[in-house]
Amino acid sequence: MLELIQPDWPAPGGVRALSTTRHGGVSLEPWSSFNLGDHVGDDPLAVQANRRRLRQLLPDEPRWLQQVHGVACVDAARIAAGATADAAFSRQRGVVCAVMTADCLPVLLCDDQATVVGIAHAGWRGLAAGVIESTLAAMAVPGERLMAWLGPAIGPRAFEVGGEVRAAFIAIDGAASAAFTPAAEGKWLCDIYRLARQRLAAHGIRRVTGADFCTASEPRRFFSYRRDGVSGRMASLIWLE
Predict the structure, then answer these.
(1) Model confidence over 171-195: pLDDT tens digits?
(2) Which of 66, 94, 95, 161 could form a disulfide with 59 if both were Cys (CB 3.0 to 4.6 A apart)?
(3) 8-state DSSP, 184
(4) What is the number of domains present in the chain?
């Protein structure tokens, strides 16, 4: 059975969003079963079948991106399939913005009036480099009129990083130190949700929900590249009805 997550946020009527899990598809191990990534070694026919199942729930084919852990944000209504970017926005109804993840953080955004939606693929590199800021700039709406939902990502008790990751964030904002907890042998546990909240708050976005998942510690529900190495990909999607 197809298992989906509906964001728990006060989005206005006219905004639709969802995240997939690993359940409900036809892919075999180690990509079982609802893998949507066509770049992870899975049978292309299985990926196509999974994407067809997803498409039945949507007003149009998702604008899939070639994600590179960067900061580029594109207008989903104007791009060709497979455009290189890590974020998208749309003011056009029926255009489905999408990112794929398997530990990285999907950040979904919309405004109070349902005039624009946005989505960002925020791994630590993209988050540090400013992918959220790029998305907000493209949406061009004051932060107090926006809300965000933080979808399934690796949780703060599972995301172990080196000191260089901590240093990269602290160099941008000293308050980021609160998102890191010492671990063994000079490593740190990183709370990517907290880092995203800090970035959003810096731009006046206080209505932030979600952030209560851990892809790495829920193997029956989520794909996790950090946990498994060879892994499928989940999708987070948002559009204007």
Answers:
(1) 999 999 999 999 988 899 999 999 9
(2) 94
(3) G
(4) 1
